[in-house]
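Exam review. A common question shows you a sequence with its structure tokens and asks you to describe the fold in words. Practice with the pair below. Do the first one on your own.
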Amino acid sequence: MAESSYKYIIVGAGLAGASAVEGIREKDTTGSILLVGTEDALPYNRPPLTKGLWSGDEKVEDVFIHDEAFFKDHGVEVLRSSPVERIDPAGKSIQLAAGASYSYGSLLLATGGAPRRLNITGANARGIFYYRTLADYEAIRAEATEGKTAVVIGGGFIGSEIAAALTNAGVQVTIVFPDPYLVQRVFPKDLGRAITKVYEEKGVTVITDDSPASIERQGNGFLTGTNGGRWLESDILVVGIGIVPGTELAEAAGLDVENGITVNERLQTSDPNIYAAGDNANFPYAALRKRMRVEHWDNALNQGKQAGRNMAGAREPYAYMPFFFSDLFEFGYEAVGEVDSRLNTFADWQEEFKTGVVYYLKDHRVRGAMMCNVWDKVDDARALIRADKPVTPDDLRGRITADEE
């Protein structure tokens, strides 16, 4: 079978992959592009899967980044439901699991990540939602009718968001996680405990310092046993315990991999003809002077576009500072930089645990900031981080505030 050739091949049809198409076309309006994805859907945004689709602010048709006409008009061939089996860097080609091979001039690995799976008895039982895809949303939404019960495993970003979404849909939710409070990796202790209390006030049963030990199908539902000796019955079982970056193809191809696919400031891997962007890329975060892997929408959007531009010859460093956001009942936030609860923190509250800014500091310098119910101030926070100057609490107090109504 003859091998088809493309100037650009993008493996991964998520946000980073779709953004790379835009980046390529900014520099090269005619070069042939092949976009290869594992899902049946066209590229879509993931944040609505735990936010806008549940609140009614968005409909399923709203989540798609581009329609079929966009890809056709921009000369992009899209292959759906087409897992890639291997990459041949020496031959500059990819091979699909179905057998077809395609050669490339430049290749982007925008393979994202896969949901981290439990390693316990019953972890692969039929009907468990390892929540990640649009198909997962559509399936769980059909089951999440008022009066149903759900157990959510995991107290990080996905677990906390889907627990709130299900509760708002009228489902009786129990959330179980091994930490003392929700989103421990990001929230300082006082804020984390306050948010956990909000969940309890909303009717969520919160089980901290515990984790699942076994899962059994029980009729049309589940029985989850915990290491703390609890037995939790539910109609729905959702697991949201993070993702594993999609590095398998890169590893098999001999590319450098360490907590993601290692890339340089131009998003090139150890093979200069192969780039990586999105959840799977471990990149030099210029403003923080350290390597990071960022699993958030804004990074995939901007890093994917920059990778596309560089594939088309731009050779520009990725110096952007991505932000992320979340909505947990009435508590919403935007955050940027190194938002790690292990750092020193200073909270400048206008209304305690509701409106204000949490600063994350190292050596008295701002490394990150989380604006809680304070909107459109990310650029202000970026400027503080880039300044890289010692600050005191007095310097920060009132520095970033919510706009007056």
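Now try the second one, then compare your answer with the model answer below.
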Amino acid sequence: MFIAKLIINGRQTEAAGGATFERRDLLTGAVVTRASACGVAGALVAADAAAAAFPMWSSAAPKMRAEILKNSAAVLHSRADDIVAIACREVGATEEWIRFNISVAQTMLREAAKLCAYLGEEAIENPNGPATDLNYRLLRKPAGVILGIAPWNAPVALAVRAVASPLALGNTVVLKASELCPKTHETVAEVFSEAGLPDGVLNFITNAPVDAHDVVDALIAHPAVRRINFTGSSRVGREIALSAAQHFKRCVLELSGKGTIIVLDDADIEGTAEAVAHATFFNQGQICMSADRIIVDDAIADTFIAAFREKAEQLRSSQMETERSPLGDIISSDAVLRIKGLIDDATRKGAVLVTGGEMFNTALQPTILDRVSFGMRIYEEEVFGPVAGVIRVADAEEALTIANDTEFGLVASVFGADTARAGAIARQIETGIVHVNGSTVYDDPAMPFGGVKASGYGRFGGKAAVHEFTETQWITERAKPVDVLVGQHEGVRAGSRNQGRKTI
């Protein structure tokens, strides 16, 4: 059994009164992790510690911050075996998925280190012309304390993403763990300490599920907290956005998705089927980028579905009752029942079960449904499981219409041999990310990542993070004070009707 504690001001500590909660094994029910259950008071202590560390960290040399982030990537690599052992048990994922997470997180840290140079001042040209003695400068500076809320499904990569760019840009952080993987997220926080991050710069808390709402609300309300970044469901993201709005605080929200793939009539069938299987079934489809709507031109639908079925059946579990699925576990038996409900609803309304659908405990065989249509729950709802709904269309125009017929807008892909045609369609899809001839499950930490519509707003990754986690201050400088005409810009001739009226 693992023990997860809070990390506040650089020290591991227990919650008040020794309060704890348990994370249990998905299959056996045995306790995997006993974690400290921080309440509102403890969360505020963590925010206070981050606020106290902010003056030191925000003024630290960019080179120092960059070196710590690079060191964190190295420490993460050295702790990989420990992290795999913990995360696989807490969330039921495969070793392949966790090691992939670690690799992505290392890249995130190295990319974040490059952002350290973006703080500071720059002189800009005064638009009123060179005759004036009024100089303009722009100062880019850290925002303050950042609240990062990480999910369970990509437990390493998304915990690192919640803190790496904010730290690079001189902010201090409170990282709130997922209740489903508290030890995994604690280990991520430890990595930064081992890499040399000063005490108080990153504070880590865990809370019992019943206390999550109160803890998050209290942290959002804390006066030192200036940004909130959250990755999770649209339902919870909406609550966070409403709470943050009451305090005039900005959010970066990466929320639910309904990954959409368009397969055009000239697509390479074999290659597309391989990519769609990856997009749909990797990590049991429990990725925000996972595809669950496959929109296929009817001219090639039968051929494509046959190839897709073959790929799906290669991923089946041969002994569901005795062996873990090669795709890993679904996060809970309740989640399996919800997904099975989507399948049953679709088949009752006319969808055709091509393969899969069998369930046992926290496993569900890779599933393909053909002839999905409007009116079925799976047409509208995020699946977050290993189920692909195939929607047949008459042509590319209808495919585009259906692709945009969703409240979500995170990621989409278009497959076709004519890349100019596929690219033209891709540019009309209402998503934050779109790929041509590639899986929806793809991220480059150097690029802006995020969605539109109910998939959230704001962007993680690359230079976009500079905008999200810093403030810009406009500074004017004069050699000496002068009188300024009210309503007049520098360089405007005297003699207007406002002459003689002065500002301070």
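Model answer, second protein: DSSP finds 15 helices and 25 strands in the chain. Residues 490-504 have pLDDT under 50 and may be disordered. Full marks require stating both points clearly.
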